[in-house]
# Entry
Amino acid sequence: MHVRHPSYRLVTRADVPFPAGTSEDEWKLTRSREAGDVNAEVREAVDRDGYSLFRIGLSLFEIPKP
# Structure
């Protein structure tokens, strides 16, 4: 959870360096999970990009319209 913007969540792997562009002191650890307990799309993003970033509490009005 981001310390100044708590609706943002960052998923990383424990065995790789923290993503460039941020630092560990900007984030609070809220939970550790095994890979099998993480959504497949999140695992794929972490494998591809080194992290997955998302926001809790979006409204339906924030979904882009076609």
Observations:
- The chain has one domain: 8-62.
- Residues 6 and 32 are 17 Å apart (CA to CA).
- Helices lie at 40-49.
